[in-house]
Structure formats: structure tokens, C-alpha cells
Amino acid sequence: MVAVGLWGAVLGPPAIWLLPVAFPLIMALGGVLGIAAVPIPRVEVGIAISAIVLGLMVALAVRAPLVVAVAVVSAFAVFHGHAHGAELPPGADAIAFSAGFVIATGLLHVCGIGLGLATRWPAGWLAVRLVGAAIAGAGVIFLRAALWS
Question: Is the pLDDT of residue 64 over 90?
């Protein structure tokens, strides 16, 4: 989630606000699919790949066209939302539960944007790229766990 805000900050306006808005909106739709028990194969693999791809986008400072960036984060948002929706506790209020994971995701995006503002300084650029690399590395660890669990 932090990587979405970071990548938006790397891309600059309008991506700095559009990516962190698109992701939770599409994630909420994925959440509905999870709550409705609509099967999406390999959700955990999709989430792990999202960390790898989004981390690399930041680490490599990829300047994708806005429509591509929105499409990438939106595709991954479906997996994240589905995972949250599928974890709805029995008897829980689906609306309140969904609002909670959407708001938490938005706050993580804001953290990424805040960190991404460090790109205004040369040392900040390096730090942001290293954070992106760390996110991608964590994604590799998660992918291995998802594939061999």
C-alpha cells in the first residue's frame, strides 16, 4: 500500500492523488467479490506480485503513462480487496469492515506520498528508491511463501 503512494509521488501530479484514489475504489469492488465468495485464483500470489511490481516501479523510478499506472494499481487492487473481503468475520458488519480496510489502505497511501516527497532532494531520491527495492524484496519473500504454502 505504501508503494502505491510512493509511485504516485515519483510520477508527480496527477498520479500523486489519482493512484491512491483509484486503488481503494477498485479494492472495494474486489472486497465485494471476496464477501460474495466469488473465486479468484491465487489471490495471495497476486498480492505478492503486486509488492514486487510496485516496489520495482518505485526502485527503478519507472515513468509509466498515467493510464498504465492506474491500470496496474487497479488490477492489483482487486486481489487486495478480495483478500480482505474473504476474511470478513462471521456476523460482522460488512460495510463497517469494508470501510475499515479502505480507510486503512488510504492512510498507508498517504504515508507513501509523505515518504515520496523526499524525492525533492538527491538523498531522498536514493532513500525512496531503496524503500521501493525493499518492498519488492519483501514481495519476493511473500511470493515464495504463497507458492510453497
Answer: yes
> Whole-prediction pTM value?
0.94
- Grid coordinates representing 95 are 460495510
Among candidate residues 111, 52, 46, 54, the one with its CA nearest the CA of residue 84: 46
pLDDT of residue 149: 74
**Phi, psi at 38, each rounded to 5°:** -75, 120
Residue pair 89/97 in contact by the 8 Å Cβ criterion? yes
What is the Cα–Cα distance from 62 to 15, expressed in whole angstroms? 13
Q: How many helices (H) and strands (E) does the chain have?
A: 6, 0
Per-residue cell: 54: 510496485
**Helices 66-86 and 94-116: crossing angle, nearest 10°?**
140
What cell numbers appear for 24 in the block?
Answer: 481503494
What is residue 100's predicted lDDT score, i.e. its pLDDT?
A: 95
Residue 53 has what pLDDT?
98
Residues 9 and 67: their CA atoms lie apart, in Å, by: 16
Give dist(CA 148, CA 130) in Å, integer. Answer: 27
